[in-house]
Amino acid sequence: MSSLMARLQSGKGYLISAIIVAGLQTMILGTIIQSRASILSNGAEVLLKTTPVDPRDFLRGDYVVLNYDISTVPVETVSGGIPAEPGERTLWVRLKKQPDGFWKVSESSFQTLPPQPETVILRSKPFYSGGLAAGDSIRAEYGIERYYVPEGQGKPIEEARNDGNVAIAVRVSPDGSAQIRSLLVDGKPVYDEPLY
User: In terms of pTM, does the model score above 0.90?
Assistant: First the structure.
């Protein structure tokens, strides 16, 4: 123990400490990157139709704000009931492929949904629920509401989105996490996300 303390107090101790800290930081960053890459390479793919939203904030850089049909979850799709007490909640949404190729909400729940054939379960980001006074629908976000594009390329995509011509191919992991795989305009891929 005393030899370890002596090494730490010497110049070698600082070097060893710096190497350990750098190794931990690299490991954490690698885990974050691998988590995203794992969803993109192994997740189930769904195609989502976008809907228009207000124009983007030019002060935040070049990105496109995305809203989806599945972002408004009808209350009648909620199985197991809506929690009576207000509070922070997570919504699990079952998506089913429609004849037009897009995926729509077929069921939702404030509890984890069991897997079913030919469906994908998407987990919302935590949000505040007002309890039983939810209204006709529940607004859910999934962490795929913003897509960064090369500088100067956002405006044409926003115009296509506002005309209803933009779709997003999303990969969904078994735990319900989502990552955007590609952005399509008029059914053709415009941007594909690399794994790394």
Answer: no
